[in-house]
Design a protein that fits this description.
Elements lengths: L1 H30 L1 H6 L4 H9 L3 H17 L1
Helix pairs in contact: 1-4
Length: 72
Protein backbone atom coordinates (compact mmCIF):
# COMPACT_ATOMS: atom_id res chain seq x y z
CA UNK A 1 0.00 0.00 0.00
CA UNK A 2 2.83 2.40 0.81
CA UNK A 3 4.37 2.05 -2.66
CA UNK A 4 1.00 2.65 -4.28
CA UNK A 5 0.47 5.91 -2.39
CA UNK A 6 3.97 7.28 -3.02
CA UNK A 7 3.68 6.36 -6.69
CA UNK A 8 0.50 8.43 -7.07
CA UNK A 9 1.68 11.57 -5.26
CA UNK A 10 2.84 13.35 -8.46
CA UNK A 11 -0.47 12.50 -10.11
CA UNK A 12 -2.42 13.86 -7.16
CA UNK A 13 -0.33 17.05 -7.12
CA UNK A 14 -0.87 17.46 -10.86
CA UNK A 15 -4.61 16.95 -10.54
CA UNK A 16 -4.82 19.41 -7.65
CA UNK A 17 -2.83 21.99 -9.61
CA UNK A 18 -5.12 21.56 -12.60
CA UNK A 19 -8.19 21.92 -10.41
CA UNK A 20 -6.79 25.14 -8.93
CA UNK A 21 -6.10 26.48 -12.43
CA UNK A 22 -9.66 25.67 -13.53
CA UNK A 23 -11.13 27.32 -10.44
CA UNK A 24 -8.95 30.37 -10.94
CA UNK A 25 -10.28 30.81 -14.47
CA UNK A 26 -13.84 30.68 -13.16
CA UNK A 27 -12.96 33.23 -10.46
CA UNK A 28 -11.54 35.54 -13.12
CA UNK A 29 -15.00 35.75 -14.71
CA UNK A 30 -16.50 36.95 -11.44
CA UNK A 31 -13.50 39.19 -10.69
CA UNK A 32 -14.19 41.29 -13.75
CA UNK A 33 -11.92 43.29 -16.03
CA UNK A 34 -9.29 43.99 -13.37
CA UNK A 35 -8.76 40.25 -12.92
CA UNK A 36 -8.52 39.69 -16.66
CA UNK A 37 -5.78 42.34 -16.83
CA UNK A 38 -3.95 41.09 -13.73
CA UNK A 39 -3.77 37.52 -15.01
CA UNK A 40 -2.47 38.56 -18.41
CA UNK A 41 -5.46 38.57 -20.72
CA UNK A 42 -5.31 41.01 -23.61
CA UNK A 43 -6.90 44.42 -23.28
CA UNK A 44 -9.60 43.39 -25.76
CA UNK A 45 -10.79 40.66 -23.36
CA UNK A 46 -10.73 43.04 -20.39
CA UNK A 47 -12.60 45.72 -22.32
CA UNK A 48 -15.16 43.17 -23.48
CA UNK A 49 -15.69 42.03 -19.91
CA UNK A 50 -16.09 45.65 -18.80
CA UNK A 51 -18.67 46.25 -21.54
CA UNK A 52 -20.63 43.16 -20.51
CA UNK A 53 -20.04 41.23 -23.72
CA UNK A 54 -20.59 37.48 -23.67
CA UNK A 55 -17.35 36.58 -25.49
CA UNK A 56 -14.84 36.93 -22.59
CA UNK A 57 -16.66 34.69 -20.08
CA UNK A 58 -17.45 32.07 -22.74
CA UNK A 59 -13.80 31.90 -23.81
CA UNK A 60 -12.66 31.81 -20.18
CA UNK A 61 -15.02 28.92 -19.39
CA UNK A 62 -13.67 27.13 -22.46
CA UNK A 63 -10.13 27.63 -21.22
CA UNK A 64 -11.15 26.45 -17.73
CA UNK A 65 -12.53 23.22 -19.22
CA UNK A 66 -9.08 21.95 -20.22
CA UNK A 67 -7.51 21.92 -16.73
CA UNK A 68 -10.89 20.87 -15.34
CA UNK A 69 -10.78 17.73 -17.48
CA UNK A 70 -7.14 17.15 -16.57
CA UNK A 71 -8.05 17.34 -12.88
CA UNK A 72 -10.81 14.75 -13.21
Amino acid sequence: MRDFVSYNIPLIVGAASSAIAALLHICIIFGGPAWYRFFGACERMAAGAAAGHLYPPVVTVGIACAPGVWAA
